[in-house]
Specification:
heterodimer, A: about 110 residues, mainly beta, 5-stranded mixed beta sheet, 4-stranded antiparallel beta sheet, 9 strands, about 40% strand, globular, B: about 120 residues, 7-stranded mixed beta sheet
Chain lengths: ~110, ~120
């Protein structure tokens, strides 16, 4: 997998936007960026993915830089239930497109 | 999306015994994977379960310890053999839908295993 780098932890106040950064400077042209999260003791939950263009769904927005070397996951109005570990992953064919979970960013949403 | 169920949801086992974990998907899927999450750690891929052929194991995992079956496109099993306390982990099944590299993986709820 293309190596990704994320801050180990972040805090966000409830109701504010949470912006989670990820660096993936070795990403190849045809590799997608995926975001998952894991709430304590649950299976990982898919959030969003993208290739070049910014993406938005009911959960979040994904902003990918023009050079594709970094991206930001945005939770527009964070709630306490968004407290989780967030993983930025770039799977590739060498790993059979399996997901390589790094350490992720532990997001704490506070009241 | 895909709905995935795992059985059992949790178990407490004795050292030296084996446990088989089942993963059932509500639709046919291209790829199925098994992951392990040790206490306080991130997820680690064990193997890719291939339909109709032997599973593909990641470095550090072997078939004798973690035999896998995938008899069809909606079901797979992972056996944790000759268990030791170090095998205490959450074991997760995931499935991929869509073209490889563009697909989305969905995860089951996990099986929490404690080995005494």
């Amino acid at each position: 997998d293309a190596k990704t780098t994320q801050p180990p932890s972040m805090d966000c106040a409830e109701g504010r936007a949470a912006n989670l950064p990820c660096n993936h400077s070795t990403i190849s042209g045809n590799e997608y960026v995926y975001w998952y999260r894991q709430i304590h003791s649950q299976g990982p939950q898919y959030i969003i993915h993208g290739l070049k263009n910014n993406e938005t769904n009911e959960m979040a927005s994904l902003i990918i830089t023009e050079d594709r070397k970094s991206s930001t996951l945005i939770l527009p109005h964070a709630t306490l239930r968004d407290t989780a570990v967030y993983y930025c992953i770039v799977p590739n064919s060498n790993s059979g497109y399996a997901l390589n979970f790094g350490k992720g960013t532990s997001l704490l949403v506070t009241p | 999306s895909a709905v995935i169920s795992q059985k059992p949801s949790r178990d407490i086992c004795q050292r030296g015994t084996s446990l088989t974990i089942q993963c059932q998907v509500d639709s046919q899927v291209t790829m199925m994977f098994w992951y392990r999450q040790q206490p306080g750690q991130s997820l680690t891929l064990i193997a890719t379960a291939n339909q109709g052929s032997e599973a593909t194991y990641e470095s550090g995992f072997v078939i004798d310890k973690f035999p896998i079956s995938r008899p069809n496109l909606t079901f797979s099993t992972l056996t944790v053999s000759n268990m030791s306390p170090e095998d205490s982990s959450i074991y997760l099944c995931s499935v991929a839908t869509g073209p490889l590299g563009q697909d989305t993986q969905y995860f089951g709820p996990g099986t929490r295993l404690t080995v005494l």
